[in-house]
Specification:
By secondary structure, the protein is α+β, with helices and mostly antiparallel strands. Mean pLDDT is 94; it is low at 2-19.
Length: 760
């Protein structure tokens, strides 16, 4: 997506904003009215209340030696990431209570904080967490015994990422509800962490930060905001990952191949630390990152990455072919970064991206009827998405999903001193008690291109109402009490309405939208229909929706059903403009295009769909389409004989297969991930129904078998062949395949690219 950086205010407003920084309203000051966002909030509330606090707390009680009141949840909550959902749950409860005033939510939140306090008191050193074998793990770190990899730190699954969720949950609890007990637990936890890393050198700390660690730096910046104690800001700076910060400060793009959501929370931390410390290099680095991701790496609905990693900016073909499209957690964090930069830089353009992503990714990532959160949103034509269930699914995107739909009121409005800014056209009520200003917004946008605002005041007041003119809006017009105002509406700007307002004054905003085709950022011949900020897609089939609502399997979040061939997707032949002209409006943002019906993507659920369409000239079609057919036949043939596979060095693929290792490096070269070791690496693959006969190991460089040994289920592997950079092992009649590759004499192994169980 491309977003212009026009920031055009009237002269009076320019000087006014320079004097007063933009600020958010508290969530409790905004209430949603009926509409898609209110429905999403209500569905989220139901899901939140279906979760059992005692089961979420169980990992913390186990670690503290306190008898559990209920068994912990399964799935990710019992295979290494134990306790991470509880941190998200605190945040979701806090924001949902602020957004709704629901007392059951508040009671649950207070209960969880009390239980966490008991765990902390039992531990006796300020620590509270659910990380398995936490005492042993943290003692090793404190003593400088550190072996960091992209998601494994001393063979523990992202422990700092895990504990960051608790830091964030405690912070949000205090911020949104004023819970003093949460503040006390948070400060003690922060002091424990400072003591934990006190003996470590800067180099050792940076080694720890190689492993995904969430927004741990932001958490200490938040502690500084709460306490004003500089030791927390100093710690925030100390745990900022320089391998990411330094290139960004130099305006260098080193993101390709990196695990995407690992990086975004770091950048949120850079932005916050930069603001608090006055370090402009850090805030500029955050802005550079945002521009790079939103303009070069994001697709039409706002998401980025595939299989959780940033793809090359010049090649989105991997995303188009994958069932693991943009991850919802990425957009959750990009929304947080956009909000922070908007408040810091006072640039309306950040709202254009925020709005696009809010409607098309965040809103669409929850099932609007049954509830359940989406992990991956594929852009592969004719594929589908999978939804979580409260009892079975404990993925990261469940945690962030619980939060996403609890805070829709955060940026509908903002203010600077006495002035109000209307940022989003969402039916809602703003009750600014401090200034005795009450505003009700009524709108059916995006189904109707207008919004109405009615002011209720205790007495007449002079202030500015500032209405955002989005970059997509056409013929933008404002009337007050039925009288059209003479305004100059420019894209990505505010229109300032400064006057003495009286109770009952009405503002009506009208505009037009048009449908256009938006290309992928790599310039390839794939494009999506977009009307205003709304991405349109077509439902294509409700067949073969395997695992639509996920079970409790390790990879249940992936839509692993049948791939429909790309060459059978709907394709444009000729001029794209012809297809735009053929759209027939059906009402409510639905359009007929030949056999397809396009509709807002956030309405598309329980189905396969097509969002991106390939375009050929008449001259290109046969040659290019025939090539695509051949590629699809080859890809289907390989997948048909594949029982299980691991992409080495690719974070989720390795985590899904229980990676462990020591003295191991990973990287990305020529579009392929890899991992090597000078000690060992191990994985677990599943040979379903014992259908596979061989395990093929592919390397990216010269194959030297003398430097490695391979064990299968703790026995020497039976090597069938080792040639052409492929090692073939016999796994006949094995259902669970535990493979361990050992480097001999501390010599680096080859770079392993892929492990694949095949049936021939």
């Amino acid at each position: 997506m491309k977003y212009s950086f026009i920031f055009c205010f009237c002269t009076l407003l320019l000087s006014h904003v320079a004097e007063a920084q933009m600020q958010l309203f508290d969530l409790k000051e905004v209430r949603l009215k009926e509409g898609p966002f209110k429905n999403a909030q209500d569905v989220d509330l139901k899901y939140i209340l279906e979760l059992n606090p005692d089961r979420l707390l169980a990992p913390y009680l186990i670690t503290s030696g306190i008898p559990v009141k209920a068994e912990r949840y399964g799935n990710w909550e019992s295979i290494g990431l134990d306790g991470h959902i509880a941190g998200h749950y605190l945040s979701a409860l806090a924001m949902m209570y602020a957004s709704t005033g629901n007392m059951e939510v508040k009671n649950r939140l207070d209960y969880m904080i009390s239980e966490l306090e008991k765990c902390q008191q039992k531990n006796g050193n300020g620590y509270v967490g659910g990380i398995p074998q936490g005492k042993v793990f943290w003692d090793r770190i404190h003593n400088g015994d550190i072996d960091g990899s992209n998601f494994g730190l001393n063979n523990t699954w992202v422990p700092l990422y895990n504990i960051h969720k608790l830091f964030a949950g405690l912070t949000d609890t205090y911020h949104y509800t004023g819970n003093e007990k949460a503040k006390e637990v948070l400060i003690k936890l922060g002091d424990w962490f400072i003591e934990l890393i006190r003996p470590l050198s800067d180099e050792q700390i940076q080694n720890i930060l190689k492993t995904e660690h969430g927004g741990i730096s932001e958490s200490f910046a938040d502690l500084y905001i709460i306490t004003k104690d500089k030791k927390y800001l100093e710690t925030a700076e100390k745990v900022s990952h320089l391998a990411i910060l330094n290139p960004l400060e130099k305006k260098e793009d080193k993101l390709t191949g990196l695990h995407a959501n690992t990086q975004i929370p770091k950048v949120i931390g850079f932005e916050k630390i930069g603001v608090l410390s006055g370090n402009k290099d850090m805030t500029d680095a955050a802005q550079f990152f945002w521009e790079n991701v939103t303009q070069k790496r994001s697709v039409a609905f706002g998401g980025n990455s595939f299989a959780e990693h940033f793809n090359p900016t010049e090649d989105f073909s991997g995303m188009l072919k994958s069932n693991q499209g943009p991850e919802t957690c990425n957009s959750y964090n990009m929304e947080r970064l956009s909000k922070a930069l908007f408040l810091d830089k006072n640039k309306v353009s950040y709202l254009d991206f925020y709005e696009r992503t809010l409607y098309n990714h965040i809103l669409s990532s929850q099932h609007p009827g049954k509830g359940g959160f989406v992990y991956f949103t594929p852009i592969r034509p004719n594929h589908y998405r999978v939804y979580s269930k409260p009892e079975t699914s404990m993925w990261c995107c469940v945690g962030s999903g619980l939060e996403n739909h609890s805070k829709y009121g955060e940026l509908i409005y903002s203010h600077a001193e006495n002035d109000v800014f209307v940022n989003l056209f969402i039916p809602s009520v703003l009750d600014w008690k401090e200034k005795n200003i009450y505003i009700e917004q009524s709108t059916k946008f995006p189904y109707q291109n207008s919004t109405d605002l009615v002011l209720k005041l205790k007495k007449s007041e002079t202030f500015s109402m500032n209405i955002r003119c989005p970059e997509w809006a056409e013929n933008f017009e404002i009337s007050i009490n039925g009288k059209i105002q003479k305004t100059e509406a420019k894209p990505s700007s505010y229109i300032m309405l400064n006057r003495k307002w009286k109770s009952g004054d009405q503002i009506r905003v009208t505009f037009k939208t048009s449908t256009h085709l938006e290309n992928l950022p790599d310039g390839s011949n794939w494009s999506a229909f977009v009307n205003g900020p709304i991405v349109l897609a077509a439902k294509t089939s409700n067949k073969d929706l395997d695992g639509l609502f996920a079970d409790d399997s390790r990879m249940g979040h992936i839509a692993a059903g049948k791939y429909y061939p790309l060459d059978q997707a709907y394709t444009f032949i000729g001029e794209k403009a012809d297809y735009l002209s053929r759209l027939k409006e059906l009402g409510n943002l639905h359009f007929r295009l030949d056999s397809l019906e396009l509709e807002p993507f956030f309405e598309v659920h329980d189905t396969r769909y097509q969002m991106y369409f390939q375009n050929y000239s008449k001259e290109q079609f046969k040659e290019k389409h025939d090539l695509l057919i051949r590629q699809e036949i080859e890809a289907r043939a390989l997948e048909a004989k594949t029982i299980d596979k691991i992409n080495c060095g690719e974070q989720q693929s390795e985590a899904d297969h229980l990676y462990k290792g020591e003295k191991s490096n990973f990287g990305y070269e020529d579009g392929k991930f890899w991992r090597n070791t000078s000690s060992y690496i191990s994985y677990q693959l599943l040979n379903k129904n014992k259908l596979g006969n061989f395990l093929d190991i592919t390397v990216l460089e010269e194959l030297k078998m003398d430097n490695i040994s391979i064990l299968i289920n703790e026995k020497p592997a039976q090597i069938v062949a080792a040639e052409n950079k492929v090692i073939r092992l016999n796994i006949n009649k094995m259902e669970v395949v535990n493979i361990k590759i050992i480097a001999k004499n501390l010599i680096n192994s080859p770079m392993f690219y892929q492990l694949r169980i095949v049936n021939d």
